[in-house]
Fold Branched-chain amino acid ABC transporter substrate-binding protein.
Amino acid sequence: MKNITKIGAVSALSLIIGASAAFAENIKVAFIDPLSGPFASTGTNGLHQFEHAADYMVNKDGGLLDGQMMEVVGFDNKISPKESLIQLQVAIDQGIRYIVQGNSSGVANALTEAIDKHNRRNPDSRVLFLNYAAVDPALTNDKCNFWHFRFDANADLKMDAITDSITQNPDVSKVYVIGQDYSFGKAVSAAANRFLSEKSETIEIVGDELHPIGKVNDFTPYSRKIVASGADAVITGNWGADMLGLGKSIIENGFEGPIYTYYAAGSGITAAFGESGKGSIRLVGEGKINPGPSDEVTAYYNAFLEKHPDGNLDQTRISNTIGMLAQAIEEAGTADDVVAVANALEGMEYQTIFGGTVMMRAEDHQAIQDLHIFEHTNEDIAFPYDGSEYGVKVVNTIEMAGADSETTCKMRRPNES
């Protein structure tokens, strides 16, 4: 009886060890973004999109390599660079080798510097930083490093597309620029000034200011200045609660011109604007879902809505991030050697399900892709946002935007001193 008990205990232990080993074989991706506080809805929706991309694009087909599943693990950084570094270390200590983040370029700058230092000091536990939305141009210019890959167009590439649209509009002669007071907001301001001055001798910037990020409860004073300036159009890089608060205030205070944005869709923003945003809100971004999505996109979107009926697939680059990472791991033949995975990502050309190609430029790790100008509307919307009847529709496309743009990146690779 004792022997049987012993054998049973050994068998049970083997099952536990086997189950643990199988779990450990998951390819884990750490999602470090706000899951609490004023930007929680933005971060939570992003986490859901990453989880869906991993399940739909990787796990439902049997995983990667020898059947390894991809698991996305959420870490709440409270939109704080300091907290982000703490969560980064927690993720590394858990053996996670892939980090995704996107909300706040200030956070991204802190992460990329910390990851570069960690990888130089700890070659046995290196990690890759997959940046899906932090668009400070410096991240793929003077602050570039081998471990950082950006899957979104940077602020300059997006502003190039926005200013093309503005200069082609004969009704715009005065522009007001406003944004959040941190690295990204400053980058948007600098790019708007540069591109408008280069492209037009008649368009005047009648206002250019920054406000505290995540701390303004009433944007009325800013909105009144915008209206009083006589501006015909507004440019803002605001996101999250700051985008909604500013945009609604501008419209409610009587501004009737177009408001050109980077992040004025989804996460409750589209529903909140509703009819008031129609004819006003413009958005620059990648990924084409309205009008005429393909059957593949329809299936992908509907599968997401089954799990998150009130959610939004408003960041199609998230599917590109997961898809390109999966392709790189398969090409490298390993998920453990992040240098091999990074080498596979460099120069990759990826066919996205949303149409077009994403090319990861090797010299600076900046994704080059089609960019679109969208408008907020309820017309010809196959896939609305926020459970509302409103969504965004493409009105203009710039193919492979910024493919010939210059970079100041001087990247040091792992085999270089």
In short: The first helix runs from residue 2 to 24. Residues 155-285 form a domain with the Rossmann fold fold (CATH 3.40.50.2300).
